[in-house]
Amino acid sequence: MPLFQHKLQRSNKLKTLLCFLLFTQLNVFCQTFIVLDQDTHELIEEVNYTLLFRGDTVSKGITKLNEFTTLDSSKPYDSLFLSKFDYEDLIVPKSKIDTLIYLNKRMLFLDEVVISNKRDNTIRFGELNRFVKSRSARISDSIYGGILFTNPHSKTIAVRKVDFFIDKAVHETNVVIKFFAIEKTKVSDYILISRELFSTDSIKIQTKQKGKIEVPLNQAYELKPNEQIFVTVKLLNYPKDGKLNFIPDLKEQTKLKFQISERTDYFNRYWKLKINKSSEELINVNAFLNYDYAYQFKRKPHKSMLVAPAIVLYGVFAE
Questions:
Q1: What is the arithmetic mean of pLDDT over 41-70?
Q2: Which long-range contacts does 300-307 make (Cβ < 8 Å, 24+ apart)?
């Protein structure tokens, strides 16, 4: 081996070793963290943090979104104080500062939770929980997922209105809401979509519209006792400049908001790798996740993983 090449290799090895030692020392002497929401496990931006030593302030700062915060180790500190006006304050001893720090939400804004406008004589079907922003999904022109609603009452209910929730629309969007009958399969927690029972007229979503979309039904749908219906929002088109064949980039397509779910009524198709196509049957997503975690890890999944489309039905007992 030529001498200069041998020296070059030794030099590269030395540089690598020095970088490793430097990285190790930085990790030993510098503490880094990001702040997450305890419920949704989503990143929280602009959290105020203060380094304390025996109760006195050492330094202050504000966290940034999608960036780790590195604490100043040039001055001694024994604890970290975190605060954000809509979250509960938190003090973390230095010895317990972890890479991930969670804050509990104490104040919910209207755009963070499913809102109900239920009246005294109105019956509501659907959950009212916090949105999980990272789980929003584009509205598709195919029937992939939706909510299975069941009438648990002994009387027929006239469904008169449907609410669903969207992220801010980039483009004008036309959609419809469809009700389907379902068929049970031999496998538990799987269903097949049967015949279409009901469809709304075209619903126009305006550019920049966001949040709740209220859809009064021109004709009430009568949901019989113990009847189950699969409800979904289906894309018609994105009209632009008089054309109906415009397809925006994925990131600009209108998205349906998802919320934390405590139920097992969200069904969705899944991808079959062997045949490289979507399944005909729909799987109970949250029931599957609960089973999988119990079997694999002997515990429940975090509630931020158990989500469902934010769709709510309203009705009254039929006369």
A1: 92
A2: 302/41, 303/39, 303/260, 303/262, 304/39, 304/40, 304/41, 304/42, 304/132, 304/260, 306/260, 306/261, 306/262, 307/132, 307/135, 307/258, 307/259, 307/260, 307/261, 307/266
